[in-house]
Amino acid sequence: MESLPLETAEKIILRWDSTASEDARDKMIFSGDRDEADLYLQAVDEIQRSLSSVSVSEKVNSAIQIAMARLEDEFRNILISHTNSFDPTTEDEASQTLDPPSSSSSPKHPDNDESDEVSQTSLLRFNSDGAASSVTGSYRSTSSIREIDLIPSDAVYDLRCIAERMVSSGYLRECIQVYGSVRKSSVDASFRKLGIEKLSIGDVQRLQWEQLENKIRRWIRAAKVCVRTLFASEKKLCEQIFDGVGTSIDDACFMETVKGPAIQLFNFAEAISISRRSPEKLFKILDLHDALTELMPDIDVVFDSKSSETIRVQAAEILSRLGEAARGILSEFENAVLKEPSRVPVPGGTIHPLTRYVMNYISLISDYKVTLNELIVSKPSTGSRYSGDPGIPDLDLSEFEEKTPLDVHLIWIIVILQFNLDGKSKHYKDASLAHLFVMNNVHYIVQKVRGSPELREMIGDDYLKKLTGKFRQAATSYQRATWVRVLYCLRDEGLHVSGGFSSGVSKSALRERFKAFNAMFEEVHRTQAVWLIPDSQLREELRISISEKLIPAYRSFLGRFRGHIESGRHPENYIKYSVEDLEDAVLDFFEGVTVSQHLRRRSE
Known about the structure:
Layout lengths: L5 H10 L6 H5 L7 H18 L6 H24 L6 H9 L32 H4 L20 H16 L3 H23 L6 H6 L2 H34 L6 H25 L8 H21 L6 H31 L13 H15 L1 H7 L29 H21 L5 H21 L1 H7 L1 H28 L7 E3 L4 E3 L1 H22 L7 H31 L12 H8 L8 H9 L1
Antiparallel strand pairs: 1-2
């Protein structure tokens, strides 16, 4: 294309001077005829060439200033009018198809029925509700950067043409400012659609945890869209317009556009990473850690320049602090379980809320074993750390040399839970009930471990056998504490008398023996009907074990001595129970209801 005469170029520039012509104010060059736009650019080129000559007139200087002002307006108008509509919710849905199920759609933990829900009470002096609501698995996404065209290619071409001329005329700063202002407004609009709020670190830390849980879920989804699509597409657009125009201008424009929004985005995760630690926060912190871990390679790609190093460093530091927070919370959780102070015995010797809470909690921990195995690299300090402290249980770590540090931490939590429960059992005045309490709680621990394949693998069958042995020993101790004295009434010793002329059974001693048995059994029946074994199979097994000892002994005793009582007066005062009566009475045990309630049930 032949160059224009300088005079012609100046006329073209002045014709489009928006400060001097109403017609020029109302029209945009690049919105009309393509030839007109090319002619204007040609005029600018001629003016720029004339500036390099030795003598430059004031008229030429004025023309280049008018041209740059006009190109700045054109640049802004193209950016605003040609921006493609970006629907971040569509991008969010697209990214979700590439990701495993999120926390909101994860299945509940096996065996985590309504009765196993974490207690709403403040067991460990923290809000126990959080852990229960965070039933979720860790995940690794296979999705990556998904760039889109934010501006049509013909508009990108025009923007590049304008940028080249503004930069070569010394208007780099103005070009960057206009670009950054318009594009940052677009990014802000996308943030609003994604539900990303402008919250300072202080604002985040003042929110209640229940509010933050929902915001964390939203942040994880939004961060993926922001890094992989929004920021990546903005970077691509900067490169399309500015790459090669000048030294690192594309980086400068990119950071002018996204630095503020990126800091805003990551400030939320940073606030969570440095917030006050408490056990209910662990799983959302791990969700954040997982999300940021899978995003780090994309962050390194999108923010790969020297000027964007602060964003990379911020993200890496947040990731490190999230890992540190997770380790700290696990340690504090162990300490809280050990020192949980409640002293009031749970009625009926049933499962303590602490046991439910802790076992549901570590079941959730097992769901995050991939992440936590990377974060937890040292085994807990146990016996050697607390040498000689009677308030701390001991654990021989040499038994678990093949276990990962996380596995040992979970075993240690179960050890200190049992230690705490043993202490709580001492608050029962009835030794039988104390043993029943231990049996119930350790059995629950065993069932929770067996019910989770992940947890069972981590705990291991060897330690599971020890736990099984402990609840069976507690069941044996209960039977001894309750039934040895009852069965003692059914012995023969002390009933036979011998004299000079005859020998036989002392009816008075026999009457006293029946009366003692009746009184003891009635007391046990009345008391232990209201005790509770929640697990139906365990309840039935213990009843069978009781019956196997009690019923044959009573049947034999009754068979040997019934005649001596029935031959006397008022035998019904001494033989109150038939064998069938005892069998029925045993079925009342451990239901958690009174004898009178049992009687009403039978009469209905």
